Amino acid sequence: MPFSGIAPGSKLERDIDKCVAAIRTDDPGMEKGQAIAICRSRLEKQMGEENTKDTLSETTSAETESSVDVTLTDKAGHLVRRVRDDDEHEKRGDGFEETEGFVNLGATSFAELDQIEAAREAANQIRRRAGQFNGLIDNIMMDPDVEDKGAAMTTVADEFGVLAGEAMERKEKWQPLTDIVANAIAPLVDKQGPAMKTEGGIKFPREDFAFTPSGNVSTWKLRLAEGKPGNITRSQLGAAAAAFSPGGFRGQKVQIPSGDVAAVKGKIRAAYRKIGVKDEDIPPSVRKELEVKEGFTVFKQKDGSYRWLATYSNKFRDVDNPPEIISEASHMRFTKMVNDGDFPYPEVKVWHIDGSRWGQADFVAYDDRGFSIASGTVDKGREWIAESLMAFEGDLLTSHGMPPASIVRDPDDHSIIIRHQTTEISPLPASAAANKFTGFNILGDEVKEMALSDKDEAKLTALNINPERLDADTESKAKDTEELEFKENDPPDTPKETGQDDYVARDEMIDLVKSVGETQKQIVELIGNLVDRVQTLETNKLAIDKETLEHTPAASLTDIHKSVIGSPETKVDGRSSLAKSGP
To answer: Where are stretches of biased composition, namely Basic and acidic residues (predicted)?
Structure first.
């Protein structure tokens, strides 16, 4: 049979035929292309590099006189043989040696001469690349790591076409050559078929995977089908989605370049929709409007508003020095105090920076697996902070702040906190959290004036938040406050008498609780039923000291829901004696 680059009927062809037959007799399962490559390699070593080169370029005198154009339209099997080796035969077509000042017949101008010489150089370049092409094809056939040999050969052919195109100025000069190459490898490509990756004993095509960066099947990840090719199932999609969740799929998170994550998640979402799954039933880890971060998540709701969700604390020991732990009893007590209205809901800040508040919780719970959860809204005018955190590339964990006066430690082990109050929750980069799941920070006794230090600015920048914008935003709010305080000497407005109808009736409160309950239900569904139940404390185990509110400000039902924290009626001037007095 004819071999690429070998003269038909030559001794080399006969030797390769015999070698291939012998090898395939010993190993019937070996592919013919691989056997040919092995035989060529053996014979080349035996004959020596120079002798092999002479044999491969064996031609007749008639073939020597053939033009490049004839070569381009000949069969692929004669590709190398029919192009003259000008390195060995520095002769004109009529047999005369080329000498200095030689001019090809027919050239009557330097422009025509340049065209002729360019054509010869192009022919030499194509000849060299054609020989390399054959070697690359042999390597592909011999390499067991290349599973999709057809795709690999197609890639080489495409590259060869580009290189040949660069060598020839006119497309009609080189296009026939690339057509020959394409036709020569087409049967091999068809024989190989499309690339397939075997998992669980089943071969799956490229379209059954969410991440396929190249033709190499070893790079394919996140299979979407199971049982047979094309069989997209919800369970398999769930496994792919779980690989993006904080805990990963069976503890393993998928490793994908950050620039490809959005597209891969989009492909998973499209697969869910294709099998009839509604958007709201798609797992949060790949849902478009809910890009889950580690421990702290910001997402946009259907009404356009923002909400945050945080696993902000737990009953496990942190990695601070010294390591500390908040007991389960303390977590449960705090949750009850907040839900009973004895403690205000925590604020949410940026990395514990004073003056950086951008929202407040309206939901707090403790789950029996040892985690405290909170969720809340974003303050008006601070939506840009939520958007900045949503765009943050890394993982977000949380840390919560506790006033020192609220902390009670175990008398037998001071590293254990048995009572606390969380007043604020802060997202921060995973590398900065005290606890590998969450962390906490004991706040200073005095609240500092808002002035961003270099350290604060570095923290903000690390979270993708513009320090200058936050500083300007806070300064603007401070000016608004000063204007309000300037009017403190004006005669106060006459208090509006409140009648019986202004009190919150029991039925109204029940309706309010039901409304809040609906919000809580939605949050619980978002976190995958993370909060199964909230345990109540036994009153005989912990004595709860409640402060009596002597003056309850008149407020609307909505204000009561949001708590009195932040209300103008409960505002205390920081310069007053009341604010400066100790507890």
So the answer is: 43-56
